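Worked example 3. Consider a protein that binds adenosine-5-diphosphoribose.
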Amino acid sequence: MKKIMILSGAGLSAESGIRTFRDHDGLWENHDVMKVCSTQGWIADRKGVTRFYNERRADIASKEPNHAHKVLSQLECEYRGRIVHLTQNIDNLMEKAGAKEVVHLHGTLTDLRCEACLETFDVGYAAQEPHMSCPHCGAKCIRHNVVMFGEAAPAYSHIYEAIRSSSLFIAIGTSGAVIDIVSIAKEFKHSVLIDPKRQETVSIYDKHTYIDQYFEHFIAKKASEAMDELLALIHAHMED
Ligand code: APR
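Given these inputs, the predicted complex is written out as C-alpha cells:
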C-alpha cells in the first residue's frame, strides 16, 4: 500500500499569522534566534528564554488553522495510516484542524518538559510559572518542549522511517535550512515542493542551484492556494 511523506515548515502556518524564521533576517518575533533557540542562549538566560516561549504559547491561542491545515487534516482521514506528516512547526494548528497523527520534529509549544525524568506534560496556552513541579516525578526543573540548536532531535528517526516507507515526498513551506529537503527529494522518484518563492540550496555540494530543480513538481504558490493542485497529484499517485 502506497504511503506519502509530508514535511512541513513555517510556511504552512504563515497564512495563519505565525511568522516564518528565515524571512526576517535571523530574527524570530524580533528576537535573535541563537539567543532564544540554542543551548548557549538557554544556559545564559533561562528566565528570558522561558519568557519568550511563554509569549509564543500565549500567541498561538488566538491563531486559527488555514485552508492548507484543513486540507492536510482531511487527507489524514481519507488515507488513514498512509500519510506520514512530519512537521517542523511547534504550533498546534494541524491539531486544531483535526489532525491526530502529525509528528512534531522540533517539539510542541503547548507542552512542557521535565529535565529530570524527560517526560512532557500538557500546559495548554498557560505560562510556565517559576518553581513549577513535574506531574510525573515532582522535580522542579521544568523547561519548554522545543528542540534547540545544539540539542538532539530524537523524533528525526521518523524521517528515515518515512523515506523508507513512502513513494511520494511532499515538502510544504520549508526553506530546507535545518532539514535538507534536497537530499530527501533525491531519495524519491516522485516529489512535490510547495513554496511561493524559489529558494537556493543550502548544501555545499549543490551550490547556486535552486531547491525546486530537485523536485518532480514545483507549485510556486502559498500553501493554501496550492491545495487543489496538490490534491490532484496525490489522488493520481494513490490511484496509479
Ligand atoms: N506558503 C508556503 N510557503 C511559504 C509561505 C506560504 N504562505 N510563506 C513563506 N513560505 C516559505 C518561505 O519562502 C520559506 O522557504 O516557507 C519557508 C519557511 O522557511 P523557514 O522560515 O526557514 O522555516 P522552516 O524551514 O520551517 O525552518 C526550519 O528552523 O529555526 C528553526 O526550528 C526552527 O523549525 C524551524 C526550522
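Take a moment to read the result before moving on. Residues 177 and 202 are 6 Å apart (CA to CA). The chain has a mean pLDDT of 95.
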